[in-house]
């Protein structure tokens, strides 16, 4: 991922999710799965091999 604004936005969204742990924004029973999926998605996107990206 080359765009610093997108990386910053992704990290801010992760911060929002972690702060939402005890709020009605994210259901308590699915919070851990949501947080884990978001982290996995961000990490995969940040460290993806360029050959895996689609050419536009």
**Structural class, from helix and strand content?**
mainly alpha
- Count of helices? 2
Mean pLDDT: 76
Distance between the termini: 15 Å
What shape does the CA trace take? elongated
- Strand tally, please? 0
How would you characterize the largest beta sheet? none
Report low-confidence residues grouped into runs of 5 or more: none
Radius of gyration: 13 Å
Fraction of helical residues: 55-70%
What is the H/E string?
Answer: HH
Short description:
This protein has helices at residues 4-19, 31-46. With 56 residues, the chain is mostly helical.
Provide key terms for this protein.
elongated; 2 helices; mainly alpha; single chain
Explain the overall architecture.
Helices cover 57% and strands 0% of the residues. It has two helices and no strands. The longest helix has 16 residues, at 4-19. It is elongated.
Which SSEs are present, and which pair or pack?
Blueprint: H1 4-19, H2 31-46
Helix pairs in contact: 1-2
């Amino acid at each position: 991922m080359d765009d610093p604004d997108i990386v910053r936005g992704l990290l801010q969204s992760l911060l929002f999710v972690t702060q939402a742990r005890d709020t009605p924004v994210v259901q308590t029973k699915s919070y851990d799965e949501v947080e884990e999926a978001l982290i996995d998605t961000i990490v995969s996107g940040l460290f993806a091999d360029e050959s895996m990206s689609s050419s536009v």
